[in-house]
Write a structure and sequence with these properties.
ATP binds at residues 12-17. Its main location: cytoplasm. Its EC number is 2.7.1.24. It catalyses: 3'-dephospho-CoA + ATP = ADP + CoA + H(+). By secondary structure, the chain is an alpha/beta fold. It has one domain: P-loop containing nucleotide triphosphate hydrolases (Rossmann fold). Helices cover 55% and strands 12% of the residues. Helix 1 (15-25) crosses helix 9, helix 4 (67-76) crosses helix 5 and helix 6 packs across helix 7 (152-160). The chain binds adenosine-5'-diphosphate (ADP).
Length: 202
């Protein structure tokens, strides 16, 4: 059976970058944001839930969801965030469990759940070990602004809406410090990969 590892970290901490590293090594990676994106296409389950709740304001002229508009509503208002989590998490959990079962049948050595809200959503109950990718807040702010084209205030809002890093650190089992170069982070990831696949044991 594959080991199921949670990969988490704050926004722009470097989760996707590390998930890609592990995928290239041979892991199956389940990305909850990609699942949510897929289910948010017109007429799919999350699309219907969003339109019912927020109204047609959150649609673009071509009928697809305006994810930025939803993001702004949700990040500006804690109650909306709570509503969103309560209505989407059970659906996402169900789909993740189905996909985990499917990956288990395909004999991957490791299945990685690439999930920003791993602890917040309680999805660490599905994993055997949880790896936290972390960066200092100044690095996080700068990478987030650069990647998403956010203003400093927008980026700060996104960071503030998440569980504080100190709490995530207490709940994680293993860590990748991504403050330095990619090369440095990949060498930390390589060590973890060896542990997960037992390739380091002679
Ligand atoms: P997440 O998936 O956690 O939101 P990403 O993996 O997308 O984060 O990384 C955030 C941004 O920072 C991306 O633009 C990525 O290319 C960049 N990045 C990640 N790690 C490093 C690093 N060690 N050095 C420089 N840039 C990095």
């Amino acid at each position: 059976m594959a080991r199921i590892i949670g990969l988490t970290g704050g926004i722009a901490s470097g989760k996707s970058t590390m998930a890609k590293f592990f995928r290239d090594k041979g892991a199956a990676v389940l990305n909850v944001d990609a699942i949510a994106h897929h289910l948010s296409k017109p007429r799919r389950v999350l699309y219907k839930i969003y339109v019912q709740h927020f109204g047609e304001d959150i649609l673009q002229p071509d009928g697809t969801l305006d994810r930025r508009a939803i993001g702004q509503k949700v990040f500006a208002d804690k109650n909306e965030r709570q509503w969103l989590n309560e209505h989407t998490h059970p659906i996402l959990e169900h789909v993740m469990r189905q996909q985990i079962a499917c990956m288990q049948r395909k004999n991957f050595p490791v299945i990685i759940l690439d999930v920003p809200l791993l602890f917040e959503a309680g999805w660490d109950k599905m994993t055997e070990e949880n790896c936290l990718v972390f960066v200092d807040e100044a690095v996080q702010l700068e990478r987030l602004m650069r990647r998403n084209g956010y203003t400093e205030a927008e980026a700060q809002g996104r960071i503030a809406a998440q569980m504080p890093l100190t709490e995530k650190k207490q709940r994680a089992d293993t860590f990748i410090d991504n403050n330095g170069s990619l090369e440095d982070s990949f060498s930390q990831a390589e060590k973890l990969w060896k542990e997960w696949t037992h390739a380091g044991i002679s």
